[in-house]
Amino acid sequence: METRGSIEGVFLSSSKARSFRAQSSSEGDVEDVEPGKIQVKSSESVLPYVGAACLGAVLFGYHLGVINGALEYLAKDLGFPENTVLQGWVVSALLAGATVGSFTGGSLADKFGRTKTFMLDAIPLTVGAFLCATAQSIETMIIGRLLSGIGIGISSAIVPLYISEISPTEIRGTLGSANQLFICIGILAALVAGLPLADNPLWWRTMFAVAVIPSVLLALGMAFSPESPRWLYQQGKISEAEFSVKRLYGKERVAEFMSDLDTAGQGSYEPEAGWFDLFSSRYRKVVSVGAALFLFQQFAGINAVVYYSTSVFRSAGVTSDVAASALVGAANVFGTTIASSLIYTIYKRRNKVGVSSLFCTDKNNLLICKIWRSIR
Q: Is 242:254 a contact under the CB 8 Å cutoff?
């Protein structure tokens, strides 16, 4: 917990007024900043950059949900309407690619930086969406889904990482939940995009083609976004880290921020760790609880809902099957919004209100409660 506190201290500004001398590395001048006269950028100044990063989360959700309404129609168009095995391959190819991408995303971000990894990530996302939209065979469709999966796997690793590293402490909890919220919004967007399918069986191609637009916007947005100051500092690029802080928070916080980085770097050093260290006594409890959360989430059947709810509604005799799926997606967004706001509220009031009494209302919230207790 000391490491966690030192990292958060990087972004924590002191509440006491103080005077300091800020050395500009690019201009070489020294500025005297008087107490009470510091004009710091609003915390909301990072929102455009967080929004650009969240396009990766939107694409994650969109590629998960787009197959829901489109599967039956693309199967007919590509010639395997009765072959459930091939339909399963179309669905699962995305997950296979996501597995590869999730394992490589962190390494790419550490080597090339957060923003450049985002731009690299836009390549498989764009190419994969294009191949799916123009596919004339099952092979092309599977390759397109595989590439899209690699793209969303990478984004699943770097979106929350980048957001946490550029967000100021006072709103980091709120912005941290934005990743999950935008994933749900992406799923909802994919389900809503399937509404014209009943009148236009070839609309499924447009549904995949639409994903090209946010992929390109992701690359463009991150091209103009500042790199993570923490990553730049770790690479020894001090002047670039100072410039990034200046863009994010204003020049008045550069000296203070860099001092906090120095302090955090000195106080949070840990030896190089490997995968097997996750199972050591030090991390076993947190890793087990976190893994259990996702395990029980899968047992709840959410994947079947995301991928096959339209088919389930159709089999149940629901006339507006795609619309019913869209309503499920809307409920998903609504639930995520409520959960995010509750968690943030409880976090702020954790010393006044018992977490157990508010969160232990169902099996999923019970897991949240257990995780909370393990990290306190």
A: yes
Side-chain-side CA neighbours of 222 within 13 Å: the count stands at: 27
363-375 vs 284-299: helix crossing angle, rounded to 10: 170
Cβ-based neighbour number of residue 274 at 10 Å: 7
Reported as a single tens digit per residue, the pLDDT across 266-283 is 655 556 667 777 778 888
Q: pLDDT band at residue 220, thresholds of 50, 70 and 90? A: very high
Structure tokens at 2: 């000391």
pLDDT band at 19 (very low <50, low <70, confident <90, very high): very low
C-alpha distances in angstroms, 256 versus 21, 30, 42, 249? 9, 14, 16, 11
92-105 pLDDT, tens digit each: 999 999 999 999 99
- Token pair of 52, please? 């650009």
- Helix 302-315, helix 321-348: angle, nearest 10: 150
Query: CA–CA distance from 168 to each of 22, 80, 295 (Å)?
Result: 20, 51, 32
Please tell me what DSSP assigns to residue 1: -
pLDDT digits (tens, 9 = 90+) for 245-263: 888 888 877 887 788 777 7
Instruction: Quickly list DSSP for 352-366.
Output: TS-HHHHHTTSHHHH
For 30, phi then psi, to 5°, come to -115, 130
Q: What is the pTM of this model?
A: 0.77
CB 122 within 8 A of CB 171: no
> 276: exposed, middle or buried (C-beta count within 10 Å: 0-12, 13-18, 19+)?
exposed
| Alpha carbons 21 and 16: distance in angstroms, whole number | 16
- The distance of Cα 319 from the centroid of its chain, to the nearest Å, equals 34
Radius of gyration of the chain (CA): 23
